[in-house]
GTPase Era
Amino acid sequence: MNTLDTTPLKPDYRSGFIAIVGRPNVGKSTLMNHLVGQKVSITSKKAQTTRHKVNGIYTDDTAQLVFVDTPGFQTHHRNALNDRLNQNVTEAVAGVDVVVMVIEALRFTDADREVLKQLPRRVPVLLVVNKIDKGQAKDAATLNAFIDQVRTEYDFAGVEVVSAKHGLRIANLIEDLKPMLPEGIPLYPEDMVTDKSSRFLAMEIVREKLFRYLGEELPYAMNVEVEQFEEEDGLYRIYIAVLVDKDSQKGILIGKGGEKLKKISTEARLDMEKLFDTKVFLKVWVKVKSGWADDIRFLRELGM
Ligand SMILES: Nc1nc2c(ncn2[C@@H]2O[C@H](COP(=O)(O)OP(=O)(O)OP(=O)(O)O)[C@@H](O)[C@H]2O)c(=O)[nH]1
C-alpha cells in the first residue's frame, strides 16, 4: 500500500474510472482481461456470465485506468436476479469518467440500442468495435461503412476498433482513453490489477467452469458461494458450494460417477493455482436451494 505515498506526482498524470458496457457476449470480459493483462474477469461462450462488477486496473507512467466491468443486459429469463443485474449496469455507470461501449463488428442490434439508452448523457462514451478479426470485418471498407452507420445512433466521443481475443489494438485503446480522464494521482497502488479479493476470484473461476461444462440454460439456475477460504503455509484451502434449484440439476452437475464435478473442480483448481501462484486445495460441492433466483434477500446475502 506504500506505493500510493511514494508515487511522485507527475505533471499531466491522468487517472479515473471507466465503465465497460455492452450487450451480453460482445467481449467485455475478454477486453478487460487484455486491458489489465491478467485474468480478472471471466469469459465464456455463453451470454451473461458476468454477474459482479470487477475492477481491473491498468497503470503506467502517464495514467491509471480503473475499469469497472458491468453485467450484460438480460432481456429474457426475467426474475429478481436479472432485474438486479440490469440495475447494476446503471449503478456501475453512474460516477465514472468515461464509458466504453463495446459492440461486435458488423452487428448492431436492438440490444445494443437498449444499452445506449441506459447511458447517462453527461458521461463521454467511446465506441469500441470488437471482433474485427472475424470474417467480413477484416475488410476495411465494410468495417468503415458499419462504423459510419453506428455513429448515427449516438453522439460518441470517439471510436476505436479492436480484437480483444487476439489483443489487437489494445494499446491504441489505452492511448485513446488517457486524454479522456481527469488529471490526478493514481487511485490505487501501481502493482494492483484488481481490488477484488482472492475469495471473489476463486468464486468467479468456478462459475466460469460451470458455464463451460454445462448445457445452455443450466448455469443460470445456479450460484456459487465460497463457504471457507483459508491461507496456511502457502496453501489455500477453498471450500465452494454450488447452489442449484432442483435435485435434477444437482444430478446433471455431478455427472456420471461424479465425473463432471470432478472435471470442473480440477480445472478450477489449476486456474486458481496459476492466478494465486500457490498450491490450492479445492473442494466443490452441490447444494439444493429451491427458488433461489427469486429470493432477493438471499441475493443480498450473496453480496449482489
Ligand atoms: N473472434 C473473436 N471472438 C471474441 C473476441 N472477443 C471476445 N470474443 C469471444 O466472444 C465470447 C464472449 O466474450 P466475453 O468476453 O465473455 O463477453 P462479455 O461481453 O463479457 O459477455 P457477458 O459476460 O455475457 O456480458 C467469447 O467466446 C470470446 O472468446 C474477438 O475479438 N474476436
